[in-house]
């Protein structure tokens, strides 16, 4: 199975109110903000959403809110991942995934499985999933890298795996996947800073953090890259360079939540063990927004 996932997908944050509850009104505003900014699809319950801190009922309520707020009918990808394969299978059965375009499933973390274990994990997840599965490789968080060989084996052998979000941080690894992938298998950057270079190599886009706050500028950059307009893409890349660095200076989603707070879209609240950004980070982001016209 293949999915309609290309261009810029936004890894939506989860807004919280001052009591620590999910702020659904702010989530509605955010979906409208990124939609008006031109993103191509929405991604719920990923790393940027602080998903490990959310209860199962909250996750279902967030999915329902995003579906209702998605008035232009953008494709919706939902994150379903865990370091227990059976827990992922159980979540796939209990979450409301009706109408979801694809599932984004992070590599099992902490356990540090072998490559054979990773391949078997994704085979089981794909068989249980009601929607095509996007592999999510993020070694800095999981402690294990899904190799090119493992990714291509899954891409060729498992029909319900439709792509990979590659956050290995190495353009060379992404290029080898592009070279060996079957037709229709999407290769997506998991790093905002590598979105444009991957587009130039023939990649299919990015699942982005920064596009929560600056969707119009970021999508314009990626589309210019797809169109081969190097001058425009490079100018936008440089315009966003300082902002991109600032988004991750004190961790994710700390930086992007600070930016959204500065833009008046959310309250600047996170759930422990994450905490809000420093005064120095706030001052830096305010300066960047002002000077770059973001």
The global form is globular
CATH topology: TIM Barrel
Task: Give the termini distance in whole angstroms.
Answer: 38 Å
Query: Can you write the helix and strand succession as a string?
Result: EHEHEHEHEHHEHEHEHHHH
Note down, in words, how this protein is organized.
The chain has 294 residues and is of the alpha/beta class. The protein has a single domain (7-233), classed as Alpha-Beta Barrel (TIM Barrel), CATH 3.20.20.70. Helix content is 46%, strand content 13%. The chain has helices at residues 24-36, 56-69, 85-94, 115-128, 139-142, 148-157, 171-180, 195-201, 215-226, 230-248, 254-262, 279-292, and strands spanning 7-11, 41-44, 76-79, 102-106, 133-137, 161-166, 186-189, 205-208. The protein has an eight-stranded parallel β-barrel, surrounded by seven helices. Strand 6, helix 7 and strand 7 form a beta-alpha-beta unit. Helix 4 (115-128) runs parallel beside helix 6. The longest helix is centred in the last third of the chain and has 19 residues, at 230-248. The N and C termini lie far apart (38 Å).
Features:
8-stranded parallel beta barrel, alpha/beta, 294 residues, 13% strand, TIM Barrel
Describe the secondary-structure layout.
Elements: E1 7-11, H1 24-36, E2 41-44, H2 56-69, E3 76-79, H3 85-94, E4 102-106, H4 115-128, E5 133-137, H5 139-142, H6 148-157, E6 161-166, H7 171-180, E7 186-189, H8 195-201, E8 205-208, H9 215-226, H10 230-248, H11 254-262, H12 279-292
Parallel strand pairs: 1-2, 1-8, 2-3, 3-4, 4-5, 5-6, 6-7, 7-8
């Amino acid at each position: 199975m293949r999915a309609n996932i290309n261009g810029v997908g936004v890894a939506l944050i989860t807004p919280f109110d001052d009591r620590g509850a999910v702020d659904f009104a702010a989530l509605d505003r955010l979906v409208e903000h990124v939609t008006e900014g031109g993103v191509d699809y929405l991604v719920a319950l990923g790393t940027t959403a602080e998903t490990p801190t959310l209860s199962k009922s909250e996750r279902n309520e967030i999915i329902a809110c995003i579906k209702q707020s998605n008035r232009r009918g953008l494709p919706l990808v939902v994150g379903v991942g865990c370091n227990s394969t059976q827990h992922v299978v159980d979540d796939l059965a209990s979450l409301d995934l009706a109408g979801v375009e694809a599932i984004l499933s992070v590599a099992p973390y902490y356990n540090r499985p072998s490559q054979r274990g990773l391949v078997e994990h994704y085979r089981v997840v794909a068989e249980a999933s009601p929607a095509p599965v996007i592999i999510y490789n993020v070694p800095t968080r999981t402690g294990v890298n899904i190799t090119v060989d493992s990714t291509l084996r899954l891409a060729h052998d498992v029909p319900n795996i439709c792509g990979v979000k590659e956050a290995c941080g190495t353009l060379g690894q992404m290029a080898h996947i592009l070279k060996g992938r079957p037709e229709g298998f999407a290769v997506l950057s998991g790093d905002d800073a590598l979105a444009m270079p991957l587009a130039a190599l023939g990649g299919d886009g990015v699942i982005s953090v920064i596009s929560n706050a600056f969707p119009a500028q970021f999508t314009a950059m990626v589309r210019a890259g797809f169109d081969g307009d190097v001058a425009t893409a490079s100018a936008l890349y440089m315009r966003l360079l300082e902002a991109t660095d600032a988004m991750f200076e004190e961790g994710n989603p700390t930086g992007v939540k600070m930016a959204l707070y500065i833009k008046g879209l959310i309250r600047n609240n996170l759930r422990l063990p994450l905490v809000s950004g420093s005064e120095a980070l706030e001052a830096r982001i305010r300066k960047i927004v002002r000077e770059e016209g973001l």
